[in-house]
Amino acid sequence: MQIKRYEVQKIQDAMQQIKNDLGPEAIILSTKTIKHSNPPKIEVIAAIDITELNNHIPGRVWCKEQDGERRNGPFGLPQGDVVHQYVEIQRMLEKMGPANDIREEIKSLKDNVELLVDVIGLARFRQESEHLAKMYQTLTANGISKGKTCHIIDEMRKGRLPEKDYVSCLKLAEKTIALSLSKNEGISKTRRIKAFIGPTGVGKTTTLAKLAASFCVDKRKKVGLITMDTFRIAAVEQLKVYAKIIDVPLQVATSKISFEKSLKALSDADVILVDTPGRSPNDAEFIKHIHETFSKDTGAEINLLLSPSMSRDHLLETENYYRLTGYDNLILTKVDECSRYGVIYDLVRHAGKPVGYLTNGQNVPQDIENATPEKLAKLIVNNSMH
Description:
By secondary structure, this protein is of the alpha/beta class. The longest helix has 29 residues, at 100-128. The protein is built from 14 helices and 13 strands. The strands form three sheets. The protein has an eight-stranded mixed β-sheet, with helices on both faces. Strands 1-3-2 form a three-stranded antiparallel β-sheet. It folds into three domains: 2-104, no CATH class; 129-180; 193-382, P-loop containing nucleotide triphosphate hydrolases (Rossmann fold), CATH 3.40.50. A hairpin with an 8-residue loop joins β12 and β13.
């Protein structure tokens, strides 16, 4: 293995030097900020040893000659090129902290890679079918990430592609997307306690009220409500109004002990819906509180509410945080406020959880509907609620 050390002010400078010295198959072993350097510098350690790296880095296959041919990677690109270098650099730089200049370099590099994927993705699919090239543009414009769009089209290519009718191509895309989404089981019919968690402002209380009305009126269930959201101003009062209109009992719980007392008070209810306070990411105490309150002994079903109107990065980051609760289902709220529904695909594939409901307005109880993979796929491909 040949190892070289570089001191540079910008990552791009190191990348060029590494490429010149070690070739495009070289990898980054480590990066770190050099303390007390003026101007600020970054130490980059790079190495080249294809065989050794292939054996010891899971999931990484580097470009090498086989039978006189160069093996290609994603999107038809030679492996070990800018795409893989970007992933490796990003992985290392994330450990270096929130330095603004580093973040700017990452963003610039990411933008360049995105542009490269766009150009190559379009060229690749256009060689096979104008329908596929148009489909690539449609799905990325709808908000699906470029990598996942390429995966969807690759799955479409396994079947018989429509030769002339683009509408049929759209239908095939819907079918392909629906098959790739988690099979929806919705809100469980057997689990009596149903908790609703999610960030502040996502619409937990309103969604809970819609479902309470649905259980009461449509399913003829005896419903009880519990609110644990005593942090938000007027949150309890808001739910009290809903409870009075729907004519269901409401309990207020501020701890695990009071929650257990509330469950006993609602022992004759068929369904108990639990509202929880919103929390910002990285609140470890809240995660602990959820685990303690909704332990396996309670048999509670936990539903995470997220709005696809959030940016993709924020949406996935938020899902990562709440994943620590071990939640069961997703509920997508404020869907009517979303402009690009493709982000739903990225979220559901990232989470690997079924979607129980979609909410599309503030009206109680009307603006809520069951979600199915087919309905989600239609929404994603058509980029429209209708």
